[in-house]
Amino acid sequence: MKYAKSASLVLLLLVVASCGGREKFVKNPLDDIIRDMPADRVFSIELYDMNVEGNFFEDYFHQYRIIEEKTPGQPEERTTEWMQVSESQFQKHVEDMGMELASRGEDGKLVKDVSPPGYNNYVGNEKYGNWVQRDGGSFWEFYGKYAFMSSMFRMFTYPVNRSYYNDYRGNYYGRGRSYYGPRTTTGGSYYGTNSNYNRTSKPNSTWSSNRSNFKNRVNSRTSRSSSASSRTSRSSSRYGGSSSRSRGGGFGK
């Protein structure tokens, strides 16, 4: 019996080792959501919640909030079911809970910058609101008929200062860079997975409800995977460089 258990353990370890470095292919659900949207529809997709299941072979999941205008000028929101994502996709967005991952505006342009919710289609859009002066600064305020959007984007508690918006539009929009807002007084980010904005907006989310050690294990694993990938890339680069120099030396002699 002990031998059988040992053999099973060895077999399991061999399977784990053989799978090392191989990522199970999982189609990005964002691509499917975008593909299924009517070509002229204004929408934005936010990362609403995250989860990881399993021990040796983890499965990764996202849940999205979609804001779309089935009728122009009338935004509606809905939350998707849980959708499986690849490990690399999970790693890519592990800091992006509560953030917008993709959007399409009235101009038909598809944007895949990671940005604060509402920054692409609604904040700064005079169709929905305007900038008002208060407390020594300029802040975005929705018109009365769109006041529900202030609640949707939690702008009563976390107002959007015009300087934040200008920073995003001037230095991040369309450049493939993620924008998490200004640094807080405690050194954290205004938006994103570990921000107060996200934690207080969904205190009972699946990700927030997981024990700290579970989240640390996942974050540690994804960090190690990213580091290993980076080391492999650098190693390949060095190998390629030395191989090229060796061939060059041979031809030179």
Give descriptors for this structure.
globular, two-stranded antiparallel sheet, alpha+beta, 253 residues, 8 helices, 6-stranded antiparallel beta sheet, disordered N terminus, disordered C terminus
Description of the structure:
- This protein is of the alpha+beta class.
- The protein contains eight helices and eight strands.
- Strands 1, 2, 3, 4, 5 and 6 form a six-stranded antiparallel sheet that branches.
- A hairpin with a 2-residue loop joins strand 7 and strand 8 (137-142).
- Mean pLDDT is 81; it is low at 2-19 and 230-253.
Briefly, what is this?
The chain is of the alpha+beta class. The protein has eight helices and eight strands, in the order ααββββαββββααααα. It starts with a helix and ends with a helix.
Secondary structure elements and pairings:
Elements: H1 2-19, H2 29-36, E1 43-53, E2 59-71, E3 74-79, E4 83-85, H3 87-92, E5 100-104, E6 110-111, E7 129-134, E8 137-142, H4 147-152, H5 162-171, H6 196-201, H7 206-209, H8 212-252
Antiparallel strand pairs: 1-2, 1-5, 2-3, 2-4, 5-6, 7-8
Count of DSSP helices? 8
State the total count of DSSP E strands.
Answer: 8
Low-confidence segments, given as residue ranges, are: 2-19, 230-253
Q: How large is the radius of gyration? A: 23 Å
CA-based shape: globular
Q: State the major sheet.
A: 6 strands, antiparallel
Class from secondary-structure proportions = alpha+beta
- Order of helical and strand elements: HHEEEEHEEEEHHHHH
> What is the rounded distance between the termini?
65 Å
Instruction: Tell me roughly what share of residues is in helical segments.
Output: 25-40%
- What proportion of the residues form beta strands (DSSP E)? 15-25%
- Average pLDDT over all residues: 81
